Amino acid sequence: MAFGEQPAYLRVASDLRKKIVNGSLPPHTRLPSQARIREEYGVSDTVALEARKVLMAEGLVEGRSGSGTYVRERPRPRRIARSGYRPAHGPVTPFRQEQADGDARGTWESGSERERAPAPVAARLGIAAGDPVMRTRYVFREGGEPVMLSTSWEPLALTGRTPVMLPEEGPLGGCGVVERMAAIDVVVDNVVEEVGARPGLAEELLALGGVPGHVVMVVERTFFASGRAVETADVVVPADRFRVAYHLPVR
């Protein structure tokens, strides 16, 4: 193979991708079989299989048990607006910062439980691995369809034995991190977000209705008060359904 030349399986995948994008292989069309790919492109079974794996990993095709591999319907991505902290007005949801533009029609489910902080979470919170935290998991739905997941952690050294220990229960349940922390005299003054993408975990894809190989975006958000982390969360959304749009003021 000459320098800079693509491996055979990527060349095959590229050609099939073009056919999917230009409509030659429209949604719900069965992808050519492995044998047909082998014959049409003059490649081995291994190359044909790897090319199909590439398209599946990109979310362009999906396998249907006992039927074959089909071109997926490509949803039009919706925007998730990120514009920093906004004080709540009217009904509050834990996803008011994560909802799509102008959309507050969704519903959510949540559940909280104590756990020992895993090492990555502890590092984000600035506490020792194994320290007690309150973990809250959310499933956000729109029209009954699961569209977003969130998991948050708060150090119980801060919120334990206070009225805000359970984020979705008590007098300030559902009020959001800033309002809840203010109730215990903790002033949140900074929020840091890191956005990344990775293959969805099996349980995430099961909850979101995805298939193995689908990519998810993960927004790692941490609230700080005078340099101390008071809450950190992972917001998980399907990468093929959403785009994250940041609206940042110029000062």
From TrEMBL:
Sorted UniProt keywords: DNA-binding, Transcription, Transcription regulation
Domain (HTH gntR-type) ranges: 6-74
Name of the molecule in the record: GntR family transcriptional regulator
Source species, domain of life: Bacteria
SUPFAM superfamilies the record matches: Chorismate lyase-like, Winged helix' DNA-binding domain
Molecular function as annotated in GO: DNA binding; DNA-binding transcription factor activity
Any one biological process term the GO annotation gives: negative regulation of DNA-templated transcription
Transmembrane segments: none
Pfam families according to UniProt: GntR (PF00392), UTRA (PF07702)
Region (Disordered): 65-117
InterPro entries named in the record: Bact_HTH_transcr_reg, Chorismate_lyase_/UTRA_dom_sf, Tscrpt_reg_HTH_GntR, UTRA, WH-like_DNA-bd_sf, WH_DNA-bd_sf
Composition bias type Basic and acidic residues, residue spans: 98-117
PANTHER family, sorted: GNTR-FAMILY TRANSCRIPTIONAL REGULATOR (PTHR44846:SF17), MANNOSYL-D-GLYCERATE TRANSPORT/METABOLISM SYSTEM REPRESSOR MNGR-RELATED (PTHR44846)
CDD domains: WHTH_GntR (cd07377)
